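Hi R.,

Here's the chain you asked about this morning:
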Amino acid sequence: MILLGIDTSGKTASVAVCDEENVLAQTSVLTRLTHSQVIMPICNDVLRNAGITLNDVDAMVVSNGPGSYTGLRIGVSAVKAMSYAMKKKCLGVSTLESLAYNMRGFHGVVCPVMKARLDLMYTAFFTSHLNEITRILDDSILSVKDIVARLKSYHGDVILVGDGAKEIFENEEIAGLDNVMLAPPHLRLQLASSLCYASFDKSFGTAETLNAEYMQVTKAEKDLQEKNA
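And here is the predicted structure, written out as tokens:
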């Protein structure tokens, strides 16, 4: 099975083509441009580098949240459009679960953390053992204080991943803990290959069922609520 994975949930635009055993091609760019400007050219480059076309892809997967509202919409819309046009199956996967797969092979607890707003972060917790990633906490929005408290409750090895990982790692209550580690830079942010490997055992659907999962009320929804209040 060949998957095309697209992640536009954060500052990094990442695209990969993978089968069950190989990353056929991958490009990740920490870009100052909007994802709408770069994501399709990156897709074309990745497919060309893999030596295949979109016809050869069996299904597509996209990070569907949490993350940047605009970024999520761009990635989900791109996959929905390609799914409709090519009559391909598709799937949305949690950004936090995908980040946990960056750490597959690590033995211990994986804590993805992504900046949300103010003192809040998106987070979830997973165990990693013998290349198996198992969820132990649903995707949540927690304060830094609550995340730190939960981390302090674990006695085994813990690794932090995501764009909020360094902030948590440098928290004064975490700095003295020998069992809490920070993911290395090349594995800290979203990777479309990890998105693919989080997906192979899941059930794929159609474009009609694919939607972004924002976890917070969008600005447009807030404005509408205030207008109607």
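One quick note: The beta strands are 3-7, 12-18, 23-30, 59-63, 89-93, 108-117, 120-129, 132-143, 158-161, 180-182.

Cheers,
M.
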